[in-house]
Amino acid sequence: MGIEIERKFLLANDAWRAAVRDSKHIAQGYLVGVRALRDGAARASVRVRISGEQAWLNIKSVELGISRAEYELPLPLADAQTMLGTLCDGVLEKTRHHVDVDGWLFEIDEFQGHNHGLIVAEIELPAADATFPRPTWLGREVSNLARYYNVNLITHPFAQWSEAERDAADAEFASGGQA
């Protein structure tokens, strides 16, 4: 079984932009009904992702936290394009920037469309308790906040968050994800 251990952060400033080594466009959608995931009726998300001329089917367990089961399988590009266009409940688009810091890779997702304005940094770790660099541009951690998960950004995009929802996300963060 594949296990993904990933931490997710908001960004404190734009200083990371000077260190970008490459960037790529990503389009992704979910094959398992997004409502089923939100309502707890599904135990895994099933996602189609296209980046450049490559495509994948990704299956990930839906629990909150930094460690989740994950499987990624290559797909023919034409099949992935058809799935995104006909089987998904919306498509999320973002530019993924790669930034290396002291031998660690940060993937910084700059969201587009209805999620424009949201920028999140992710780092994959070899263990849940692994130490990693904390560059000055790295802001508060949102790993345990479901609001920031891609699957939730399709049904409730960042641009539609009310001030009260943004405050609730802050309260949720302050309480360790329990609000």
Notes on the protein architecture:
InterPro entries: CYTH-like_dom_sf, CYTH_domain, NeuTTM/CthTTM-like. This is CYTH domain-containing protein. It comes from Dyella lipolytica. The protein has 179 residues and is of the alpha+beta class. It has one domain (3-174): Hypothetical Protein Pfu-838710-001 (Beta Barrel), CATH 2.40.320. The protein is 18% helix and 41% strand. It is built from four helices and nine strands; from the N terminus they run E-E-H-E-E-E-H-E-E-E-E-H-H. The chain has helices at residues 34-38, 77-86, 150-155, 163-174, and strands at 3-11, 20-30, 44-51, 54-61, 67-75, 92-101, 104-111, 119-124, 138-141. It has an eight-stranded antiparallel barrel. A hairpin with a 2-residue loop joins strand 3 and strand 4 (54-61).
Q: Helices and strands in order, then pairings?
A:
Blueprint: E1 3-11, E2 20-30, H1 34-38, E3 44-51, E4 54-61, E5 67-75, H2 77-86, E6 92-101, E7 104-111, E8 119-124, E9 138-141, H3 150-155, H4 163-174
Antiparallel strand pairs: 1-5, 1-8, 1-9, 2-3, 2-6, 3-4, 4-5, 6-7, 7-8
